[in-house]
Protein backbone atom coordinates (compact mmCIF):
# COMPACT_ATOMS: atom_id res chain seq x y z
CA UNK A 1 0.00 0.00 0.00
CA UNK A 2 1.38 3.38 -1.02
CA UNK A 3 0.20 6.82 -0.03
CA UNK A 4 -0.99 9.08 -2.86
CA UNK A 5 2.29 11.04 -2.75
CA UNK A 6 4.39 7.86 -2.81
CA UNK A 7 2.40 6.55 -5.78
CA UNK A 8 2.90 9.78 -7.73
CA UNK A 9 6.62 9.73 -6.94
CA UNK A 10 6.87 6.14 -8.17
CA UNK A 11 5.16 7.04 -11.46
CA UNK A 12 7.58 9.87 -12.19
CA UNK A 13 10.62 7.84 -11.12
CA UNK A 14 9.53 5.16 -13.59
CA UNK A 15 9.12 7.74 -16.32
CA UNK A 16 12.63 9.01 -15.58
CA UNK A 17 13.99 5.48 -16.05
CA UNK A 18 12.06 5.16 -19.30
CA UNK A 19 13.34 8.43 -20.77
CA UNK A 20 16.92 7.66 -19.74
CA UNK A 21 16.83 4.16 -21.26
CA UNK A 22 17.52 2.50 -17.90
CA UNK A 23 14.34 0.47 -17.59
CA UNK A 24 14.00 -2.53 -15.31
CA UNK A 25 14.40 -6.02 -16.71
CA UNK A 26 11.12 -7.96 -16.58
CA UNK A 27 10.64 -11.71 -16.05
CA UNK A 28 7.18 -12.25 -17.51
CA UNK A 29 7.10 -15.99 -16.79
CA UNK A 30 7.54 -15.41 -13.05
CA UNK A 31 5.10 -12.52 -12.81
CA UNK A 32 2.47 -14.38 -14.81
CA UNK A 33 2.32 -17.06 -12.14
CA UNK A 34 2.39 -14.54 -9.29
CA UNK A 35 -0.55 -12.59 -10.74
CA UNK A 36 -2.90 -15.55 -11.01
CA UNK A 37 -3.94 -14.98 -7.40
CA UNK A 38 -5.00 -11.35 -7.83
CA UNK A 39 -3.89 -7.84 -8.55
CA UNK A 40 -2.54 -4.99 -6.47
CA UNK A 41 -2.02 -1.96 -8.74
CA UNK A 42 -0.76 1.23 -7.12
CA UNK A 43 -2.09 3.71 -9.72
CA UNK A 44 -4.93 4.10 -12.20
CA UNK A 45 -4.20 5.70 -15.54
CA UNK A 46 -6.84 7.22 -17.82
CA UNK A 47 -4.92 7.28 -21.09
CA UNK A 48 -5.57 7.92 -24.75
CA UNK A 49 -6.01 4.82 -26.91
CA UNK A 50 -3.18 6.05 -29.20
CA UNK A 51 -0.87 3.11 -29.97
CA UNK A 52 2.23 5.27 -29.37
CA UNK A 53 1.35 5.80 -25.70
CA UNK A 54 1.71 2.69 -23.54
CA UNK A 55 1.32 3.59 -19.84
CA UNK A 56 3.09 0.46 -18.58
CA UNK A 57 6.04 1.30 -20.82
CA UNK A 58 6.27 5.05 -20.20
CA UNK A 59 6.17 4.51 -16.42
CA UNK A 60 8.48 1.47 -16.61
CA UNK A 61 6.04 -0.80 -14.82
CA UNK A 62 5.10 -4.44 -15.21
CA UNK A 63 1.81 -6.26 -15.33
CA UNK A 64 -0.20 -5.83 -12.17
CA UNK A 65 1.24 -2.39 -11.32
CA UNK A 66 -1.14 -0.09 -13.20
CA UNK A 67 -4.91 -0.18 -13.63
CA UNK A 68 -5.31 1.32 -17.11
CA UNK A 69 -8.44 2.61 -18.85
CA UNK A 70 -8.00 3.88 -22.40
CA UNK A 71 -10.20 5.83 -24.78
CA UNK A 72 -9.28 8.09 -27.69
CA UNK A 73 -8.96 11.58 -26.20
CA UNK A 74 -8.52 10.37 -22.58
CA UNK A 75 -11.84 11.72 -21.33
CA UNK A 76 -14.22 10.48 -18.64
CA UNK A 77 -17.24 8.53 -19.84
CA UNK A 78 -19.69 6.63 -17.64
CA UNK A 79 -17.93 3.32 -18.28
CA UNK A 80 -14.47 4.80 -17.68
CA UNK A 81 -15.72 6.37 -14.44
CA UNK A 82 -17.11 3.02 -13.29
CA UNK A 83 -13.75 1.35 -13.93
CA UNK A 84 -11.87 4.04 -12.02
CA UNK A 85 -14.35 3.81 -9.15
CA UNK A 86 -13.71 0.07 -9.01
CA UNK A 87 -9.99 0.75 -8.77
CA UNK A 88 -10.48 3.04 -5.79
CA UNK A 89 -13.33 1.26 -3.98
CA UNK A 90 -12.19 -2.35 -4.45
CA UNK A 91 -8.46 -2.21 -5.20
CA UNK A 92 -7.70 0.77 -2.89
CA UNK A 93 -5.72 2.61 -5.55
CA UNK A 94 -4.40 5.91 -4.10
CA UNK A 95 -3.80 7.88 -7.33
CA UNK A 96 -5.46 8.41 -10.69
CA UNK A 97 -3.55 10.08 -13.50
CA UNK A 98 -5.29 11.52 -16.55
CA UNK A 99 -2.62 11.09 -19.24
CA UNK A 100 -2.90 13.08 -22.45
CA UNK A 101 -0.21 13.28 -25.10
CA UNK A 102 1.23 15.59 -27.74
CA UNK A 103 -0.13 15.40 -31.30
CA UNK A 104 -3.34 13.73 -30.13
CA UNK A 105 -5.52 12.89 -33.14
CA UNK A 106 -8.73 12.95 -31.11
CA UNK A 107 -8.05 16.44 -29.75
CA UNK A 108 -6.88 17.44 -33.25
CA UNK A 109 -10.22 16.32 -34.66
CA UNK A 110 -12.05 18.46 -32.09
CA UNK A 111 -9.85 21.44 -33.01
CA UNK A 112 -10.70 20.89 -36.70
CA UNK A 113 -14.39 20.77 -35.83
CA UNK A 114 -14.02 24.02 -33.88
CA UNK A 115 -11.96 25.89 -36.47
CA UNK A 116 -13.33 24.44 -39.74
CA UNK A 117 -16.69 22.92 -38.73
CA UNK A 118 -15.31 19.52 -39.75
CA UNK A 119 -17.63 16.56 -39.22
CA UNK A 120 -16.62 12.92 -38.73
CA UNK A 121 -18.34 9.65 -39.65
CA UNK A 122 -19.99 7.13 -37.38
CA UNK A 123 -19.42 7.39 -33.65
CA UNK A 124 -16.17 9.36 -34.04
CA UNK A 125 -18.29 12.51 -33.78
CA UNK A 126 -19.13 11.47 -30.17
CA UNK A 127 -15.46 11.82 -29.24
CA UNK A 128 -15.32 15.26 -30.83
CA UNK A 129 -18.43 16.32 -28.93
CA UNK A 130 -16.91 15.17 -25.62
CA UNK A 131 -13.65 17.06 -26.27
CA UNK A 132 -15.23 20.28 -27.58
CA UNK A 133 -15.56 22.00 -24.13
CA UNK A 134 -11.80 21.73 -23.69
CA UNK A 135 -11.15 23.14 -27.16
CA UNK A 136 -13.52 26.06 -26.58
CA UNK A 137 -11.96 26.83 -23.19
CA UNK A 138 -8.44 26.69 -24.65
CA UNK A 139 -9.43 28.92 -27.59
CA UNK A 140 -10.92 31.53 -25.26
CA UNK A 141 -7.67 31.71 -23.31
CA UNK A 142 -5.58 32.53 -26.42
CA UNK A 143 -2.63 30.11 -26.25
CA UNK A 144 0.68 31.82 -25.43
CA UNK A 145 3.50 30.68 -27.68
CA UNK A 146 1.77 27.45 -28.63
CA UNK A 147 -0.88 25.95 -30.82
CA UNK A 148 -4.54 25.50 -30.04
CA UNK A 149 -3.95 21.74 -30.27
CA UNK A 150 -1.38 21.83 -27.47
CA UNK A 151 -3.46 24.20 -25.33
CA UNK A 152 -6.58 22.06 -25.82
CA UNK A 153 -4.64 18.90 -24.91
CA UNK A 154 -3.61 20.45 -21.60
CA UNK A 155 -7.09 21.86 -20.97
CA UNK A 156 -8.64 18.46 -21.66
CA UNK A 157 -6.39 16.88 -19.04
CA UNK A 158 -7.27 19.60 -16.52
CA UNK A 159 -11.02 19.34 -17.11
CA UNK A 160 -11.00 15.56 -16.72
CA UNK A 161 -8.88 15.75 -13.57
CA UNK A 162 -11.48 18.10 -12.11
CA UNK A 163 -14.34 15.87 -13.28
CA UNK A 164 -12.81 12.89 -11.48
CA UNK A 165 -12.03 14.88 -8.32
CA UNK A 166 -15.69 15.88 -8.11
CA UNK A 167 -17.22 12.54 -9.18
CA UNK A 168 -19.68 11.38 -6.53
CA UNK A 169 -20.09 9.29 -4.58
CA UNK A 170 -16.85 7.29 -4.55
CA UNK A 171 -14.04 9.43 -5.95
CA UNK A 172 -15.00 12.77 -4.41
CA UNK A 173 -15.26 11.17 -0.97
CA UNK A 174 -11.87 9.46 -1.33
CA UNK A 175 -10.29 12.77 -2.38
CA UNK A 176 -11.88 14.58 0.59
CA UNK A 177 -10.64 11.86 2.97
CA UNK A 178 -7.08 12.18 1.63
CA UNK A 179 -7.08 8.57 0.37
CA UNK A 180 -6.96 9.56 -3.32
CA UNK A 181 -5.24 12.15 -5.46
CA UNK A 182 -6.20 12.82 -9.06
CA UNK A 183 -3.41 14.32 -11.15
CA UNK A 184 -2.74 15.12 -14.78
CA UNK A 185 0.10 14.54 -17.18
CA UNK A 186 0.99 14.99 -20.84
CA UNK A 187 3.22 12.42 -22.54
CA UNK A 188 5.62 13.99 -25.04
CA UNK A 189 5.93 11.70 -28.04
CA UNK A 190 9.35 13.09 -29.02
CA UNK A 191 11.09 12.53 -25.66
CA UNK A 192 8.88 10.07 -23.75
CA UNK A 193 8.75 12.50 -20.83
CA UNK A 194 5.52 12.88 -18.88
CA UNK A 195 4.96 16.53 -17.99
CA UNK A 196 2.96 17.11 -14.80
CA UNK A 197 -0.17 19.18 -15.42
CA UNK A 198 -1.55 21.14 -12.47
Percent helix, as a range, is 40-55%
Backbone structural class: alpha/beta
Oligomeric state, counting identical vs distinct chains: single chain
Q: What are the low-pLDDT stretches, counting only 5+ consecutive residues below 50?
A: none
CATH superfamily descriptor of the domain at 4-20 and 40-104 and 156-197: Carbonic anhydrase
CATH C-level category of the domain at 4-20 and 40-104 and 156-197:
Alpha Beta
Q: Quote the CATH topology of the domain at 4-20 and 40-104 and 156-197.
A: Beta-carbonic Anhydrase, Chain A
Q: Which band does the percent of strand residues land in?
A: 5-15%
Q: How many helices in DSSP terms? A: 8
DSSP strand tally: 5
User: What is the mean predicted local confidence, pLDDT?
Assistant: 95
CATH architecture annotation of the domain at 4-20 and 40-104 and 156-197: 3-Layer(aba) Sandwich
Helix-strand string: HHEHEHEHHHHEE
Strand order within the widest sheet? 2-1-3-4-5
**What integer value in Å does the Rg equal?**
17 Å
Distance between the termini: 25 Å
Shape: globular
Summarize the biggest pleated sheet: 5 strands, mixed
Amino acid sequence: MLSPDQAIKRLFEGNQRYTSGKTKKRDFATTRQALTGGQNPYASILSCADSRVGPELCFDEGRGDLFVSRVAGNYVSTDILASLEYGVAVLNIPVIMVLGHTSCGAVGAAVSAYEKQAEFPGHIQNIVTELMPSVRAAASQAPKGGTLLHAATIENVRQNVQRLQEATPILARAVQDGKLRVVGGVYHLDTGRVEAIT
